[in-house]
Every structure is written in structure tokens, then in C-alpha cells.
Amino acid sequence: MDIRDLDRRALDTLGTVIAQTGPDQLRLPTPCADWTLHGLLRHQVSENLGFAAAAAGVTDDIRAWDQGDLGGDPHRAYRDSAEAMTKAFTEDVLEQRLQIREFGFFPGRVALGMHVLDCVVHGWDVARTIGVAYDPDADLVDLALRVAARIPAGSPSDDRPRAAFAPAVEIAADSPALERLLGLVGRRPAS
């Protein structure tokens, strides 16, 4: 499995959903607590740029993870940040240890798995918000599910300042993989 190819496909899948958003939808609430669609898109642009900065060796500068600016064209901002992300993750970066936000240092391959998880989940968030279909490739969901399963579980009462996602919610074990993934990151796909 080429993790860089999976990441590019996850970026493209999310980009396809973002391309369907209109300016009148940017104030809509999303499944991400406290985020409007504008905030979620800005977060994803910031994440792409943050991962790119980490691949370039930026450490100890949390501001590198908050550089996203949607300007007047959120889709263009996303595409530009996705391109920066893709260019930054060369073959040699996969074996380097990268600082990912305040979460710590991870091998580049692991960092890309975390990024795929972010793209797949936020793709669902955007699709749910704007009311469009979302059907990411099974291998993307499978990787994201494996990464999410390794995130320490919290409880709803945790303040979890270092948590990347909301506490897990119970989803039936025989549910489709995407629904199980969404449950692990605190989403309720049926609601």
C-alpha cells in the first residue's frame, strides 16, 4: 500500500465534496461541535498546511497549524493547501519523525495515516452539512478506521485538551465500516 497515494485520494475525495459547497452554506453548523462549515473548511486548509510544515521540519511552532485562510474561494484555498501537502510528503519524509500539532512526534507514514483519517471524517462532515452523497473508497475508510481505533478513548466528561476528535459513540459492530469509523470519532451517522 502506498500511503502517499491513499492520502492523495483522500484529499481528492474531500476536495470533490468541498467543490459542491456554495457561499450561502458557509454559516451552516456541522457535525463538528462549535464549527460552522466555514470553520471546518478553514480547519482542513490549516491542517493541510500544518502537515506540510511538519514535513518540512517545522517543530515547536503551533502557529504552523493555524495558517488556513479561505479568502474568497474556499475550494481554491483547499486545493492549494492540498497541493502543498502532497508536494511536502516526499518518499524520504515517510521515514522521518514529524511533530504533529501538540500530539507529539510520529513517523511520516503514521502522520499520513492520521491525515487520511482527518480527510475521510471531515469529508463526511462536509457532505452531511450540505446534504450531498458521500462514498469514499473502501480502502480509505479501512485505513482511517484502523488509525481511529488506535486513538485513546475518552469519555464525554473529559476535557481532553489534546484530543483530536469527540469521544466515541456506540455503533453496532455489524454496521458498515464508515459508520463504525464515524462512531469512533464521536459522530452519530444515523442522526
From TrEMBL:
<dbReference type="GO" id="GO:0046872">
    <property type="term" value="F:metal ion binding"/>
</dbReference>
<dbReference type="InterPro" id="IPR034660">
    <property type="entry name" value="DinB/YfiT-like"/>
</dbReference>
<dbReference type="InterPro" id="IPR024344">
    <property type="entry name" value="MDMPI_metal-binding"/>
</dbReference>
<dbReference type="Pfam" id="PF11716">
    <property type="entry name" value="MDMPI_N"/>
</dbReference>
<dbReference type="InterPro" id="IPR017517">
    <property type="entry name" value="Maleyloyr_isom"/>
</dbReference>
<feature type="domain" description="Mycothiol-dependent maleylpyruvate isomerase metal-binding">
    <location>
        <begin position="9"/>
        <end position="127"/>
    </location>
</feature>
<dbReference type="InterPro" id="IPR017520">
    <property type="entry name" value="CHP03086"/>
</dbReference>
<protein>
    <submittedName>
        <fullName>TIGR03086 family protein</fullName>
    </submittedName>
</protein>
